[in-house]
Design goal:
Helices cover 46% and strands 16% of the residues. With 139 residues, it is an alpha+beta fold. The chain folds into two domains: 10-69, no CATH class; 77-138, Winged helix-like DNA-binding domain superfamily/Winged helix DNA-binding domain (Arc Repressor Mutant, subunit A), CATH 1.10.10.10. A three-stranded antiparallel sheet has the order 1-2-3, with helices on one face. A hairpin with a 5-residue loop joins strand 1 and strand 2 (41-48). It starts with 9 loop residues before the first helix and ends with a helix.
Length: 139
């Protein structure tokens, strides 16, 4: 991924904030979650190098940065907006299960699952099941 090709404006700023946390606070690690310009959630992780070399003696610091897509699950930024039952439904929808299958798995009525799926549509800004599955799957 390159900053000009795939990453949006928020990603370079978030990378800089991770570096700032590592540099100014002396943290050994830092994490940031942002969405790129295509709406894909990205996790930026930074770590301060553990080994001491000539760079450290000269006042420099070594950092390791990684950018990865945030998979659907507890690390996903939307996850914290949902109730535990909505989270269960979201995971099942992302796996491609139908409302009837989810209802049977959770021991509730299909109407309850339908309501929870409608809430997921509202939270994620989708209107069709394929768009919802894609939004949940892309991270």
């Amino acid at each position: 991924m390159t900053a000009s090709g795939v990453l949006g404006v928020d990603v370079p700023i978030a990378v800089q904030s991770v570096v700032n946390l590592l540099w100014t606070n002396g943290n050994s690690s830092a994490v940031s979650h942002v969405a790129d310009r295509f709406g894909v959630n990205v996790t930026i992780q930074g770590e301060r190098a553990r080994s001491v070399g000539p760079e450290s003696a000269a006042g420099g610091a070594l950092f390791s940065l990684s950018l990865t897509r945030t998979a659907w699950g507890r690390a996903h930024p939307v996850f914290r907006l949902l109730s535990s039952r909505q989270r269960d439904v979201a995971v099942a929808v992302a796996e491609g299960l139908s409302n009837a299958a989810i209802a049977a798995q959770m021991g509730v009525g299909a109407a309850t699952i339908h309501e929870r799926v409608q809430t997921l549509h509202w939270v994620l800004g989708t209107s069709t099941r394929p768009a919802l599955v894609a939004a949940l799957s892309r991270g």
